[in-house]
Design goal:
The chain contains 8 helices and 6 strands, in the order αβαβαβαβαββααα. By secondary structure, it is of the alpha/beta class. The chain has 2 domains: 9-19 and 150-215, D-Maltodextrin-Binding Protein, domain 2 (3-Layer(aba) Sandwich); 21-121, Periplasmic binding protein-like II (D-Maltodextrin-Binding Protein, domain 2, 3-Layer(aba) Sandwich). Helix 3 links the parallel strand 2 (52-55) and strand 3 (78-81). Helix 3 crosses helix 8 (196-217). The protein is globular.
């Protein structure tokens, strides 16, 4: 997305730990004749590029999630960028856009009130806050495993003893029952553990997947 950066994050930053994931949740305007993911795909195929999805801005995970699902489902969705998640949800509820690939934490109140309809969640299992909403995998798209990731990196030149000390302290927090309960109540998925090497592997896997999508779809911000 940024071909002309003056630095390489993989060289200048050292992964320290994944902290949590917020699985992507697809929500739609409840006025649409769509109640599940199969109907969403059928509607999109019957109305190519007439089904819009909003995001908080170009190039972010919510934009790329929509592009990835379009690619996997073989449909054409029109992307509309807004300035923040609040604007997107208001746009969906006003009918300006029909869909939003968001996260549980920010969309849950609107789903519970009936102002948005949840179709599928992008994690490996259903969310406790929305137990009736199936995963993308259950709905026929097992490759759609997408989440907004939160983690820590540090300067690549950080001495190893400091890396080890920080990693040990983070693991203690991640294993704390109160911390996990609070985060999970907000829709986060907290890893059991995440060493620097494990987090690096996650980043590298994500990098390969998103690079492939960006090149296929010819996405750029410059």
């Amino acid at each position: 997305m940024y071909p002309n950066l003056s630095y390489d994050p993989s060289l200048h930053l050292k992964p320290l730990s994944l902290l949590s994931d917020l699985p992507i949740l697809l929500v739609v305007d409840p006025k649409l004749p769509i109640t599940n993911l199969k109907e969403f795909v059928a509607y999109a195929k019957a109305n190519p590029r007439k089904l819009n999805f909003g995001s908080p801005g170009n190039g972010g995970i919510f934009h790329l999630a929509g592009e990835l699902f379009s690619d996997q489902a073989g449909i054409e969705l029109q992307h509309i960028a807004y300035r923040g998640g609040g604007e997107v949800m208001n746009a969906v509820m006003r009918g300006e856009v029909q869909a939003y690939f968001g996260v549980v934490g920010s969309t849950l109140p609107f789903v519970n009130s009936g102002k948005l309809r949840a179709l599928a969640v992008g994690g490996g299992s259903r969310m406790p806050a929305l137990p009736e909403v199936p995963t993308f995998s259950e709905s026929g798209y097992p490759e759609f495993q997408v989440a907004s990731r939160y983690g820590l990196t540090i300067p690549a030149a950080t001495p190893q003893p400091i890396v080890d000390r920080l990693s040990k302290a983070i693991q203690a927090v991640l294993s704390n029952a109160e911390f996990r309960k609070r985060f999970e109540s907000l829709g986060f998925v907290v890893p059991v553990t995440s060493s620097p090497s494990q987090f690096k592997a996650i980043i590298e896997d994500d990098k390969i997947r998103w690079q492939s999508l960006i090149r296929r779809q010819k996405l750029t911000l410059e």
